[in-house]
Amino acid sequence: MAGVSVRDATLDDVALLRAWDEEAHVIAADPNDDWQWEEELQRQPDWREMWIAEVDGRPVGFLQIIDPAREDSHYWGDCEPDLRAIDIWIGPADALGKGYGTRMMRLAIDHCFATPEVRAILIDPLARNARARRFYERLGFAFVEERTFGEDRCAVYQLDRRTWEGR
């Protein structure tokens, strides 16, 4: 099985990310967000990382890791320090169901917990997205609450460091 690697997303990825934004499965998972790629990929705040996941040099997905207590839109509201939040998706439809998402998440989780202060990771799939919820639960994320972010009803999940390290 091919390995997944990640690299920083750059302005050169705008067309790719915009194309992925038009994929039916991406729209279904994130129907109401405009990521404003041209602007966001030029910013490099110290509280965020944006990655492109690749398999054998082929881009297959996107990952964003943020510090929700420090991120400037306050999407997560008031958050305690020492947390991270992850956004993830597979871009091309033909890359779905191949295990890439699992490997991407493991890379992201290990990266988050490589910082000793980070005690937990948050994720917020749509509440109605049963497949995504099962995916996160298999990784050890525990359901916290349903919450509305903007126009979207989401299921907030949290993965504690002890749970990840004890798997």
From TrEMBL:
Keywords: Antibiotic resistance. Residues 4-163 form the N-acetyltransferase domain. Gene3D superfamilies: 3.40.630.30. The keyword Transferase does not apply. PROSITE patterns: GNAT. PANTHER family: LYSINE N-ACYLTRANSFERASE C17G9.06C-RELATED. This is N-acetyltransferase. It comes from Lujinxingia sediminis.
